[in-house]
Design goal:
The chain is α/β, with parallel strands linked by helices. It has helices at 18-29, 41-54, 70-79, 111-137, 158-177, 197-201, 206-210, 221-232, and strands spanning 9-12, 33-38, 60-64, 89-92, 141-145, 184-190, 242-245. Strand 4, helix 4 (111-137) and strand 5 (141-145) form a beta-alpha-beta unit. One of its GO terms (molecular function) is oxidoreductase activity, acting on the CH-OH group of donors, NAD or NADP as acceptor.
Length: 261
């Protein structure tokens, strides 16, 4: 059953594209206040303008932030208007994968640090920053965007799989630590979602980036945002702990049926 939630303050990382952008649109269109966070401030401002043009009644604040840096996160919070600091919903969406190398070939200085600093430390840092306020108000909802790769491991995906396994564990632990409160924690594990994810993974090579989605109708960013909004809109006593969602012809990270093309 559809339930509308409104007038909530929603902070979304990685909001400049993909799942983050779709979440921003979904929550704003239903009358919520949105904090757009990301590194590409030009895209954030463009999205802000689009949202405000829709005039759904909520406030929109765009802020450049790199979740791999605690200083950047602190700066972002210092810049937030006072009326938007009591965050009701946190969507830890910022994340990436770089390359498809075997462990022996991984760039352990750059790729390893970039993925872990963003996918793992970023989730820890944002949650640590926002959770005390949620505990004080005895309300809030944290969404951590993980992946089926966090439990369905595959060759040449060691850093990414490990990072998402860490997100899974972190989500479970935080949920247990706030069990005496009204705070909810939802771990979101998508399968194939056609966004800029593969373009980043393959260093901007558009031909390589298209290959994972050939012959299958993949999920879209809007599909994931729809699932997230559904969980957020459940009655207060209902907590959806984990969402594992895949395209219809996908059964795991590697078990995929593709039409012959």
């Amino acid at each position: 059953m559809f339930r509308k939630i409104s007038n909530k303050i929603v902070l979304i990382t990685g909001a400049s594209s993909g799942i983050g952008e779709s979440c921003a649109k979904m929550f704003y269109e239903n009358g919520n206040h949105i904090i757009l966070c990301g590194r590409r401030v030009d895209r954030l401002n463009k999205l802000k303008d689009q949202l405000v043009l829709n005039n759904a009644g909520g406030k929109v604040f765009a802020c450049q932030v790199d979740v791999s840096s605690m200083d950047s996160i602190d700066k972002m919070f210092n810049e937030l208007p006072e009326e938007m600091k009591a965050i009701d919903i946190l969507v830890n969406n910022a994340g990436l994968s770089l390359g498809m190398d075997a462990v022996v070939d991984i760039d352990a200085r750059n790729d390893l640090d970039s993925v872990i600093d963003t996918n793992v430390k970023g989730v820890f840092r944002l949650t640590r920053k926002i959770l005390p306020g949620m505990i004080q108000r005895n309300s809030g909802h944290i969404f951590n965007i993980s992946s089926i790769a966090g439990s369905m491991f595959y060759q040449n995906g060691s850093i990414y799989c490990a990072s998402k396994a860490a997100v899974n564990a972190f989500s479970d632990i935080v949920r247990k630590e706030v069990v005496s409160t009204k705070i909810r924690v939802t771990n979101v594990c998508p399968g194939l979602v056609e966004t800029e994810f593969s373009l980043v993974r393959f260093g901007g090579d558009s031909d390589k980036a298209k290959k994972p989605y050939i012959g299958i109708d993949p999920l879209t960013a809007d599909d994931i945002a729809d699932n997230i909004y559904y969980c957020a809109s459940r009655p207060e006593h209902v907590q959806v702990t984990t969402i594992e969602v895949m395209a219809n012809n996908q059964a795991s990270t590697r078990d995929i049926y593709r039409d012959q093309v």
